[in-house]
Amino acid sequence: MNVRPKKHLGQHFLTDQSIARRIAGSLTADRCSTVLEVGCGTGVLTRFLLEREDITLYGAEVDTESIVYLHEYFPGFAPRLMEGDFLRMNLAEQFPQGVNIIGNFPYNISSQIFFQVLEYRDLIPEVVGMVQREVAVRIAEPPGSKEYGILSVFLQAFYDIEYLFTVSEGVFNPPPKVKSAVIRLRRNGVQRLDCDERLFMKVVKATFNQRRKTIRNSLRAAFGDFGGAEHEFFSLRPEVLGVAQFVGLTDWVQRHLRG
Q1: Which of 186, 196, 204, 229 has the fewest CB atoms below 10 angstroms from its CB?
Q2: What values do phi and psi take at 159, rounded to 5?
Q3: Is the pLDDT of residue 7 over 80?
Q4: DSSP letter, residue 78
Q5: Which Pfam families did the record assign (predicted)?
Q6: What strand order describes the sheet that includes 159-167?
Q7: 14 labelled ligand-binding
């Protein structure tokens, strides 16, 4: 049987076997041998992951047509293939000992997948994902770049990120209108940020949601007037601040909100 790519699911099936092999080999799995492939599709990547003897592969697939196809062509994998939405999975219940994430992520939910990774970051030591190139660049870029943004800060707070390689449009069915890229995230040593993490997220979002404004003006819009108090970052724009600077800024905001 054939699996029809579905636009509403953001499906662009990889057809190049050599790229699939390269993606499968990019996962080190040196901290955890359990792996979850998000969006198995037609099993192009699944095939090479199943060849690895150092991992135990599970799958998450929301497309019923793909599920039927995978059951037919990979019957030994079927018991570990879960039908359902990765974004709604409780990874703490399903993988209490931890799990690595890999996949050719659907373009329309790739950012949401990374926010799910952040929620379960203490259980996910490594992620290898193929996404739109602009998303990969945004996640991997250091401070000072115009692509650097909210997701960059959040992920770089807890993961070391590598941009691995670019993938052209012609190796997909249907071909997307943009290039893709593969990135690897490996959990760093930061267990908790040295600040209120919820407030940290609010501060980062507040500044980048108005990234053309100075930090002073964006924080004032989100939190109100700080009574004339000044901070060394107030005249800057958010894209120049790294994680440590945002932690310091969050502490400052917290103190002045209390005061």
Answers
A1: 229
A2: -135, 145
A3: no
A4: G
A5: RrnaAD
A6: 81-83, 56-61, 34-38, 100-104, 126-132, 180-187, 159-167
A7: yes
39 is in an annotated binding site: yes
Using the structure block, give the residue that is written with the tokens 């050599």: 18
Tell whether residue 90 is among the known ligand binding residues.
no
How far apart CA 35 and CA 98 sit, in angstroms, is 9
pTM: 0.94
Which residue segments constitute the domains of the chain, with CATH numbers given? 7-187 (3.40.50.150), 197-258 (1.10.8)
Phi, psi of 65 (to 5 degrees): -65, -40
232: tokens are 């060394």
141 to each of 29, 187, 190, how far by Cα in Å?
A: 24, 17, 19
Cα-flanking dihedrals φ and ψ of residue 202, to 5°?
-65, -40
The string of pLDDT tens digits covering residues 18-42 is 999 999 999 999 999 999 999 999 9
* Cβ burial, residue 103 (10 Å; 0-12/13-18/19+): buried
Q: How many CB atoms lie within 10 A of CB 100?
A: 27
| Residue 173 is assigned to a ligand binding site | no
231 marked ligand binding residue = no
Q: Token digits for 17?
A: 């076997």
d(CA 204, CA 118): 15
